[in-house]
Amino acid sequence: MENVQPLLEIRGLHKHFGSVEVLKGVDLTLRRGEVVSIIGSSGSGKTTLLRCVNLLEEFQDGDIVLDGETIGYSIVNGRRHRLRDRELSRQRSMTGMVFQSFNLFPHLTAAGNVMLGLRKVRRFGKEEARSIAERWLSRVGLASRSDHYPSQLSGGQQQRVAIARALAMDPKLVLLDEVTSALDPELVQEVLNTVKGIADDGATLLIVTHEMRFARDVSHRVVFMDQGQVVEDAPPAEIFGNSRSQRLAEFLRNTRT
Amino acid sequence: MQTFLDQVWIARWPLWDGFLLTIEIAISAIVLGTVVGCICGIQLLFGPAISRLLFRLYVDVMRGTPVLVLILAAFYIPSVVGISLNATQAGILALSLFAGAHIGELLRGALQAIPPGQAEAARSIGLTFPQTLTYVLLPQALRSALPPWINTGVELIKGSSLLSIIGVGELLLKTQEVIGRTFMTIEFYIFAGLLYLAANISLDQLGKMIERRVQGR
Q1: Which residues does the UniProt record annotate as the domain ABC transmembrane type-1 (chain B) (predicted)?
Q2: pLDDT at A257 over 50
């Protein structure tokens, strides 16, 4: 097992917005098929970390290596250069991202949302893209909704379409950014069950969540972030058992009201 | 009344030609103006600094100048630099540039109003920037820009009457020629006014029809 290359390796990641340092040297490693949840209070940098991995944010120092490929930047004559749009797009398509606010394309049907990337990025023909989309929509329990527009779907259904849209691209890694935070309480469970389902299928997931019970149930490891740093990185039993750091203990006390 | 209708009948072909030319001018200007406006709107928002500056300048000059002055400028300036345009071409040029600036500005607004999450979602599935623009941003922007775009079309139909000043034989000039012969001033101006109104109402209805089509979802 020791020479198995990690799927994702984040080393010394630094990110600042102007003078505000958001990530202060983050290290994180994911193996293939692993499910890792990141918890922490708002402003701890969890979401920013995911957005860096999806190359939606630039970062100032450190490396992100995905499946052996350093993404986002190249080093030429000792200087870091952001890669070009085309190259960034190719690398982004290796990860799938599911957003807190769904971000479905309102002018496309559920199937259209899932098909867009399959057609334009993966270059599938229309028929093939359609059948892949249908397969994923039925995987998230929305086979009968494939011709509905986002405005005709509930929040939970929209988020499941967004999950299908990300998964259909067959990404190496799926990033889930507080996927239930914008949902009405009664719709949370259907989305969590869907995520649980794809985790059981063996997908590699990096999850930012406020659902502590879900994080404990679904994750192989839980990472606690505070003020731009990884404070704890351990199996859920340890994290939610006798917390080692005082900051984690405090955070968990405040979330379990 | 009978004599007026007789005169209308006698003048039917010149008036019809004028009406057709008005419609042709308006359609040419909206088509060219939309092409210019799409380039302009995209450059205003996503272009490099120099391009943003130039298009901003263009938009402000066009919007700050009376259309009549634009028409006179388009009529006289090209000949100075050795380009020969006839009156109709000069008029279409002026109206297209005017429309291009307006459409550019309203497209910029429509693009800017799209939540940033849309572009992020598109990029995150691996679409390049041009693909994001083509398949995600523009379809949404064009939809919300449709009502003001129709308004610009209405402005162009009305604005085409100004081309009579430089001698383009559109509806207003033809009407004035008929009045010069018949001295039925009020009757023929009202008649021309009704034709403009009919054209504008038709355009408006067309716009509403398209709107219902794309928003009935």
Answers
A1: 19-207
A2: no
* Interface confidence (ipTM) of the complex: 0.91
Segment A15-40, tens digit of pLDDT: 999 999 999 999 999 999 999 999 99
Count of CA atoms in the C-beta half-sphere (13 A) of A251: 24
Contact between chains at B128 and A166 (C-beta distance less than 8 A): no
Q: In angstroms, rounded to a whole number, what is the distance separating the alpha carbons of residues A92 and A54?
A: 6
Which chain A residues in 26-55 lie under 8 Å from chain B, judged by CB atoms? Answer: 54-55
Provide the greatest CA pair distance for chain B.
71
Q: Decide the pairing of beta strands A95-98 and A173-177.
A: parallel
Kindly give the residue spans of alpha helices, DSSP state H, lying in B65-137. Answer: 67-80, 87-112, 116-124, 129-132
Helix, strand, coil fractions of chain B, as percent rounded to 5: 90, 0, 10
* Residues of chain B numbered 111-130 and touching chain A (CB < 8 Å): 115, 117-118, 120-129
Percent of chain A exceeding pLDDT 70 equals 98
* Domain ranges across chain A: 104-170
Instruction: Decide: helix, strand or coil at residue A107.
Output: coil
Its pTM stands at 0.88
Q: Secondary structure of B147-184 in the HEC alphabet? A: HHHHHHHHHHHHHHHHHHHHCCCCHHHHHHHHHHHHCC
Q: Nearest CB to A169: which of B123, B125, B143?
A: B125
Q: Per-residue pLDDT averaged across A165-187, rounded?
A: 94
Task: Give the SS3 label for residue A64.
Answer: strand
Which DSSP symbol is given to A145?
A: G
Domain residue spans of chain B: 2-215
For residue A117, give the nearest of B117, B118, B126 by CB distance. Answer: B126
Strand partners, A81: A74
pLDDT tens-place string over residues B12-31: 999 999 999 999 999 999 99
For residue B8, name the pLDDT band (cuts at 50, 70, 90). Answer: confident
The number of helix segments (H) and strand segments (E) in chain B equals: 10, 0
Q: Which amino acid, one-letter code, is at A246? A: Q
How far is Cα B171 from Cα B178, in angstroms, rounded to an integer? 11
Model confidence at B180, pLDDT cuts 50, 70, 90, reads very high
CA B198 and chain centroid, separation: 17
Residue bearing the bigger pLDDT, B93 or A4: B93
Q: At the top level of CATH, which class does the domain B2-215 belong to?
A: mainly alpha
Distances A59 to A10, A56, A89, B93, B210 between C-alpha atoms, Å: 12, 10, 17, 47, 44
